[in-house]
Design brief:
There is one protein chain. It is globular, with a radius of gyration of 19 Å. It has 290 residues and is an all-alpha fold.
Length: 290
């Protein structure tokens, strides 16, 4: 709870910065945040896999790394061969991942996982609806498809109806849910304000870093080291550094090859998606092993 009080203050501080930064500056600072804490929060997956020990066997680091690279390669290949499917899969997986992080440790039933997916997807679609034209451009650059504006509104409406239905159901079934639901609704209002006022990249960066990546790092430190502290944070950074650096080098190569900002934005999110797939799988296993 203490962290989320800080998250609210940090979010509105970033909104205050919004009025003092140009659009170009917002994009630059937003990418810096995503490339640091955003990429970092998924760079310790191999250590988490070793700790989880999925099959209760001592799998070699090389073998684990090979599996991880294969998943990333398949994700990248999908964006090359079937970009529309890969992008849709990325949105679905990210939606579940965001919802899972927000509602961690509350319920592990299959039905609640659908609620988590609906919740996380609502956050993404809400962001998209406030920046439809920018999102349309990114989708077109990735898939060569033009998505009509009304489709975004339809998806948001349907998603909202399903989310409310799930909310009413779990409100009547789970005491913990009932105790948290008003606070979570307040968080959604905060996200809505952030997305409405900010640019696409800046709004995404605020949510992705403050509300997802940092809480995820805290959870991972608690799992790996028993507590979240500055000492354990530097341990976390040290163990993740080489994988974080490799990711940055991959993004740097993309930028050098495609300096056009629209093309780079599309390729950047494609690359982000490719490295997201294995991370989501690792965190899914972690949350279900607690």
């Amino acid at each position: 709870m203490k962290y989320f009080n800080f998250a609210i203050l940090a979010s509105f501080f970033c909104l205050w910065l919004d009025s003092h930064l140009s659009n170009t500056s917002q994009i630059i600072v937003g990418f810096i945040f995503i490339l640091t804490f955003g990429i970092l929060h998924g760079a310790n997956d191999l250590l988490l896999i070793k700790k989880i020990d999925i099959n209760k066997e001592q799998t070699s680091l090389k073998k684990t790394l090979l599996y991880y690279i294969i998943v990333v390669a398949i994700g990248s290949l999908l964006f090359w061969l079937v970009p529309w499917f890969a992008l849709l899969l990325f949105i679905i997986v990210s939606g579940y991942h965001f919802g899972e992080q927000q509602w961690e440790n509350l319920e592990k039933s299959t039905l609640f996982k659908f609620f988590e997916f609906t919740y996380g997807l609502f956050i993404l679609i809400l962001l998209f609806n406030f920046h439809i034209e920018e999102v349309q451009d990114i989708i077109q650059n990735i898939t060569n498809l033009i998505i009509p504006k009304e489709y975004f509104t339809i998806v948001l409406t349907v998603n909202t109806i399903v989310l409310v239905f799930f909310g009413i159901y779990f409100f009547s079934k789970l005491i913990e849910f009932k105790n948290r639901v008003l606070l979570e609704i307040f968080y959604l209002l905060v996200f809505g304000i952030i997305f409405r006022v900010s640019s696409l990249i800046w709004g995404f960066a605020i949510y992705f870093i403050i509300w997802h990546s940092i809480p995820s790092i805290i959870n991972q430190m608690n799992y790996l080291n028993g507590e979240a502290s500055w000492k354990n944070f530097w341990k976390y950074v040290k163990s993740a550094f080489i994988y974080w650096l490799i990711s940055l080098l991959g993004i740097a190569i993309l930028y050098l090859l495609f300096k056009d900002i629209e093309i780079f934005n599309a390729l950047f999110f494609s690359f982000l998606a490719a490295i997201t797939f294995p991370h989501v799988l690792v965190i899914f296993i972690l949350f279900n092993r607690k």
